[in-house]
Write the structure tokens for this entry.
Amino acid sequence: MANSISLRKSTITIFYIMITNTLLQINNFGMGQGDESLGLKLINNYFNLIINDEQYPQFVVFYNSGVKLLTQNSLVVDSLKKLAEAGVQLIACKTCIEHYQISLPLPVGIAGSMIDIISLQQKAEKIITL
């Protein structure tokens, strides 16, 4: 009796993500001015759409009340973790973290100084402020 070997064809899907020299600035706990719950829904939708896009910003900086988005109970923290896993660098203003009495370490991202943020702004080809 002859031995036979069965080969199965495997499919491997490769996703290409382009990290662009873009800096995304978030200076509010949500997106836009006005109703906070609407702002949180909008920013959550924004990040979910970015995750499904093929072009990610290289950096996302958070200052003023935007640093609250990096806390464990934030509506967007899981989306931010996905961006970080894809290579997006998340930087939160240290002074703002202290002002809002947010505990370190952050669940995602790092604390940086205003000098760090300015340096990134100067090097970015494009800056988007939400």
In short: Residues 27 and 64 are 5 Å apart (CA to CA). The two ends are 70 Å apart (CA to CA).
